[in-house]
Amino acid sequence: MNPRLDRLNPYPFERLRQLFAEVQPNAHLRPISLGIGEPRHATPAFVLQAYQQALHSPTDGLASYPATAGTPALRQAFAKWLGQRYRVQVDALTQTLPVNGSREALFALTQTVVNPNQRDAIVVCPNPFYQIYEGAALLAGATPYFANSAPARNFAVDWDSVPADIWARTQLLFVCSPGNPTGAVMPLSEWEKLFALSDQYGFVIASDECYSEIYFQEEAPLGGLEAARQLGRHDWKNLVILTSLSKRSNVPGMRSGFVAGDASILKQFLLYRTYHGCAMAPPVQAASIAAWNDEAHVQENRDLYRQKFAEVTPILSEVLDVRLPDASFYLWAAIPASLGMSDTAFAKALYQEQAVTVLPGSYLAREAPAGNPGAGRIRMALVAETAECLEAARRIAAFVHQHN
Prior knowledge:
alpha/beta, Aspartate Aminotransferase, domain 1
């Protein structure tokens, strides 16, 4: 067996199952889960219709093998959306590729970028982080290095904490903006800093932007390609952005997204994917084109989240150190020190007494020189309908009041 598999850490939800293994939730309450970030708003009807029409089409159905690169129409839809959303112009056929969701692409891109012959290769990750970053780095033969986020700076990652000798060995840097779980959006000044480091040391920047369309301010979050354009970088050198329809269009089961950026990297990425067997099914391509070409449903989805967060956040902010994030559908809350509970103890007792599931923050981070930035925090995914999220918030508030 591949010995690198032994280096993988259990996924956060597996650790959560183990934490709850001997605990029974309050039988008098209906269980509510805020633990998993799985969109639960309704899938747009027109997306389902496009899928069904293609499924029964003699040319777009399941009767032939799809091309790994996708259809020209699909890639043109990517380019059109990037132009409308970020005001950037990309070559659809050389600077975009379809992927089966951002998770698959994050993993596969890492295998493409990391040189297995460099024994001391580093992949820099934000901390806390999406665990695919770590697993992809380990299975590529690299060592993850974690840069902590700073609560005092609205959870911005402290890139200055990364030593020069680490940057010198770095082959890939993961950026997540808006961030999971913090919801922080990276400003142009930080992009400028990372581009300068990439130019100096030659590493690739992979920008995970799957939460870009769920935001609470009037101004949409800055994206990697947009930041590069504003800084006069039009060739996207050593930059690849990854995005997805899962959160934007409420189709997590469709596993559809795309990558865009440096044409030389995407050429090699396509070669890797051709062998990896990652072609997107034609009906999914047809439904994806429909979704990327429509913004009305995205605005409606964003409005639902804005209303939900506006109602839920005030209830929780009375008992937890939490505020409205820049973007994403998570609340990243600190547990009051007066409770005398770790994040795991809090999650376990809350599940037992109030039948509400939250994810311990320490499960989403790693020990770093400055400690584990998730310790003492919980992540709450407000993905259910407003009424259910409000009920969960009231139960959390009651729990904190009872134990304070």
